[in-house]
Design brief:
With 80 residues, the protein is mainly alpha-helical. It has one domain. It is 62% helix and 0% strand. The chain is built from three helices and no strands. Keywords: Disulfide bond, Glycoprotein, GPI-anchor, Heme, Iron, Lipoprotein, Membrane, Metal-binding, Secreted, Signal. Belongs to the RBT5 family. It comes from Diplogelasinospora grovesii.
């Protein structure tokens, strides 16, 4: 998968990455790094990813995953 040249992606806690990949597939996005698809379906993505993130990253790090995901949607996508 190609990762956009976007520095924000490096801030994602590693515990959250498998969750994001699984959630992306669950909501119909084809690639784990298909941010355009994930950000377009942000609310579906969030509800699909949070249970996994809570168990994988714990309560302390779960909000970090959400914050970074929001930052990726803001910073890494060309404005439509």
């Amino acid at each position: 998968p190609t990762i956009p040249a976007c520095s924000v992606t490096s801030l994602m806690p590693t515990c959250g990455i498998p969750c994001i990949t699984a959630a992306a597939i669950k909501i119909g996005c084809t690639a784990s790094m298909d941010f355009a698809c994930q950000c377009k379906s942000a609310s579906a993505m969030q509800s699909a990813v949070m249970p996994c993130v809570m168990s994988a990253c714990g309560r302390a790090n779960a909000p970090v995953v959400g914050s970074v995901a929001n930052a990726i949607c803001t910073a890494c996508l060309p404005a439509a």
